[in-house]
Amino acid sequence: MVYSQPMRDDPPSTREEDNLLGQSASSYLRSARHQPVQWHPWGEEAFARAQAEDKPVLLDIGAVWCHWCHVMDRESYEDAELAALINRLFIPVKVDRDERPDVDSRYQAAVSAISGQGGWPLTAFLTPDGRPYFGGTYFPREDRYGRPGFGRVLSTMAQVWQERRDEALESAASVMNAIEHNEAFSGRGGELSLGLVDKLAASALKQFDRRNGGFGSQPKFPHPSALDLLLEIAANPDASRGSEPAAEAFTITLEKMARGGFYDQLAGGFHRYSVDERWIVPHFEKMLYDNTELLRNYVHGFQTFAREDFEQTAREIAAWLDATMTDRERGGFYASQDADINLDDDGDYFTWTLAEARAALEPAEFDAAVRHWNLRELGDMHHNPAKNVLHVPHTLEQTSAKTGQPVETLMSLLGSARAKLLAARSRRPTPFIDRTLYTGWNAMAVTAYLETARVLRLNAAKEFALLTLDRLLENAWDGGETLVHVIAYGDDAHAPAKRIAGNLDDYAFTVHACIDGWIASGNLKFYAAAVKIADAMIARFYDRAAGAFFDMQAAKDGEIPLGALAARRKPLQDSPTPAGNPTAASALLRLEPLNGRTEYREIAEDTLESFTGIVEHFGLYAGGYGLALERLLLDPMQVVVLGTGPLADQLESTAVAKFAVNKTVIRIARDQLIAGNIPEALAETLLSAPVPAGAEACALVCRGRTCMPPVTDVEGLMEAMA
Questions:
Q1: What's the rounded Cα separation, in Å, for the pair 700 and 132?
Q2: 399-424 mean pLDDT
Q3: Helix (H, G, I), strand (E, B) or coil at 136
Q4: Does residue 576 have a cis peptide bond before it, meaning omega lies within 30 degrees of 0?
């Protein structure tokens, strides 16, 4: 683990006994370079050596933000005796799951098939050619937690390979078949209909926790795509679609998440998940993708319900990202912030004892903080019961009624208390931030920031998003078919000689970001990039024979993929980010009305049709699919605001209000239209529209292929949109 305060003195990196990870660009891999295990990075060399020495491969997949990965590192991989056993019996390979999602997804499927669960650290035992024959997640050093000790597991798995090889090979073949079956998701046979969307929403609503918000019980994860799907239905006036239950699930979940310890009550931003059903005690790492997608949820919620608390949470998430997770000078969003400073703490940076809070605050501030954030002598953390996770059990109005203090007084006291607690927290050792810039995650952030900038009128967010998009296109794209997975590595690490190819997610999210970049800026270069990258996405990943998109490009002629990379995947399930296939389909459906290329719509429809027979079973985890299907089946609504000035601003604000997945609001200046600096199909529509003579600004509402006459006032626009 890379800590701001090292757990031990790091020896010089030139030590003869260092393993092969010292030259890795990944922060996670470099953090293991001094371990006595002779780690190899994922690659041909490791598997060639395994085959030459007839040894099985020990595969460890983890991440720099993963607490239990670091526990296993300290207990097992930094233990000289165990390392010697590993080095003698195995070829050890370590993988960063953020850097290599293609490797991780396949071995996660393998371990799930073997043990019934996946997760990190992922520990797998592979044949020398990379096929898994056994695996699990965290193994303790000695027998405990109902799990066998790692030393015993290592000896047994080596023995299986040496003495019961037929069993190992049979198991490996069976697991590879399971990966192929489970990961190639395809199941035509149903009908593309809004009824299928409603079934997905109903499945999510069945798991809705009305008391605490969210879905299911503990542990509780956010499900941003499912939440947006429920909001999409909630905003639909058709009561037969269950709009009221959907609205309730959406609003209660957003309320409860923002009031819980799952949300950082001081700095803003969400942790990765809650270990309890009430959103109080989180796993404290913060991920970029969770926060960008939840930012969109709160922005969309504010759009639809005009709730100030949703707006406030959205502004706080963006402020935390600005302050902590961004390269302000060059553009770019960092990948993650760790949970802990070292393995002996559990979120100590984020939690408070009463004594710590009292030392930082004036008495009146302390009293307000105790009531509002539920600070107690006996707190929430098992490792240190005096530690409290700040959360808000009661609203300010409820606290005001109970204490007799006016809401305004409480707000003032809490504002000064928050500032002082943040200042005190800033003096603590700060958890490590992985400054790697991943292409897909940065594209997601660009989209989130541009939506936030438009709805909340945050011009600085717009400018930073466009700066980031410029950097992405300059550093991760060759201007043609090639997009790589990493824009830049953090901590001044040098990019590897062979850059990691972009996957379906990278391409699909980047297409969305480029469309959003064009809408926000009017710069046609972003639209042109969206078209080129979409065409490359189709060429590289689309299965023209069977439909839908693979997550990675097929091997070239004569090239044999390493290990489980031979398995082809067509990702459908949102976990943890929106799935690649519905994201790609949505991107094509957004482009088609702009350029009139019907092939885009046909490919999107074929992609969604590929899963009609099975998607219903994914329920809560198919929110992205449901949104893409809404976009396909509902006529796209384009609202084009033509002109500048206060009236154009009013028309744009009116058009943006209320979230709808099939609605696109485009602001066009008259000189753009005259210069032809807009996409071809849109230009054809606008040039044929009878723009009112002498109007300062007007709005044109088009549904499908039909456009209504331009309107020049807010009331007319609202009527046209309705």
A1: 58
A2: 95
A3: strand
A4: yes
Amino acid at 114: I
Token pair recorded at residue 658:
């209320």
Cα–Cα distance between 168 and 130 in angstroms, integer? 12
Phi-psi region of 54 (alpha: psi -120 to 50; beta: other; left: phi over 0): left
Phi then psi dihedrals of residue 397, to 5 deg: -65, -40
- Say what the pLDDT of residue 524 is: 94
pLDDT per residue over 173-225, tens digit each?
999 888 877 655 567 777 899 999 999 999 999 999 999 999 999 999 999 99
Q: Binning pLDDT at 50, 70 and 90, where does residue 706 land?
A: confident
Cα distances from 146 to residues 108, 158, 383, in angstroms, run: 21, 22, 20
How many angstroms separate the CA atoms of 304 and 359, rounded?
Answer: 42
At 199, the amino acid letter reads K
Question: Which class for 58: exposed (0-12), middle (13-18), buried (19 or more C-beta within 10 A)?
Answer: buried
Distance (Å, whole) CA 144 – CA 148: 7
Give yes or no for a contact between 280 and 328, defined as CB atoms under 8 angstroms apart: no
The answer to whether the CB of 154 falls within 8 A of the CB of 90 is: yes
Work out the angle between the directed axes of helices 80-89 and 150-163 (0-180°, nearest 10): 10
Coil, helix or strand at residue 668: strand
| Angle between helix 580-595 and helix 524-541 axes, rounded to 10 deg | 130
What is the pLDDT confidence band of residue 693, given thresholds at 50, 70 and 90? confident
What is the DSSP track for 331-352? --B--EE-S-SSTT-SSTTT-B
Tell me the C-alpha distance between 294 and 445, whole Å.
11
pLDDT tens digits for range 438-460: 999 999 999 999 999 999 999 99
Q: What angle do CA 120, 122, 123 make, to 5 degrees?
A: 150
Contact 449, 513 (CB under 8 A): no
The Cα 703–Cα 684 span in angstroms is 15
Closest CA to 325 of 275, 264, 242: 264
If DSSP states are collapsed to H, E and C, what string results for 285-308?
A: CEEHHHHHHHHHHHHHHHHHHCCH
For the sheet with 132-136, list strands across it: 40-41, 91-96, 57-62, 122-126, 132-136
**Over residues 416-442, mean pLDDT:** 97
Q: Please report, rounded to a whole number, the percentage of residues in the chain having pLDDT higher than 90.
A: 81
Beta bridge partners of 263: 270
Q: pLDDT tens digits for 648-688?
A: 999 999 999 999 999 999 998 877 776 677 898 888 877 77
Q: What are phi and psi of 147, to 5 degrees?
A: -115, 145
Tell me: pLDDT of 417 over 80: yes
pLDDT single digits (tens) 365-382: 999 999 999 999 999 998
Residues, the chain: 722
Cα-based angle 630, 631, 635 (whole degrees, multiple of 5): 100
Q: Which two tokens stand for residue 212?
A: 């605490």
Pairing mode, if any, of strands 282-283 and 273-274? antiparallel
- 667 phi, psi to nearest 5 deg: -105, 120
Report the pLDDT value the prediction gives residue 186, as an integer from 0 to 100: 60
Look up residue 275 and give its DSSP letter.
S
- Is the distance from CB of 551 to CB of 569 less than 8 angstroms? yes
- If you average pLDDT over every residue of the chain, what do you get? 92
Are the beta carbons of 336 and 285 closer than 8 angstroms? Answer: yes
Alpha helices of 164-265 — where are they, by DSSP H?
Answer: 165-183, 194-206, 224-234, 243-259
Q: What average pLDDT does the segment 231-241 reach?
A: 79
How far is the first Cα of the chain from the last one, in angstroms, to the nearest whole number?
54
For the record, the structure tokens of 370 come out as 């105790």
Beta bridge partners, 488, equal 437
Contacts 24+ apart (CB under 8 A), 453-457: 453/520, 454/520, 454/656, 454/665, 455/299, 455/302, 455/303, 455/656, 456/299, 456/302, 456/311, 456/314, 456/315
Q: Residue 579 CB: number of other CB atoms within 10 A?
A: 28
Q: What is the pLDDT of residue 239?
A: 54
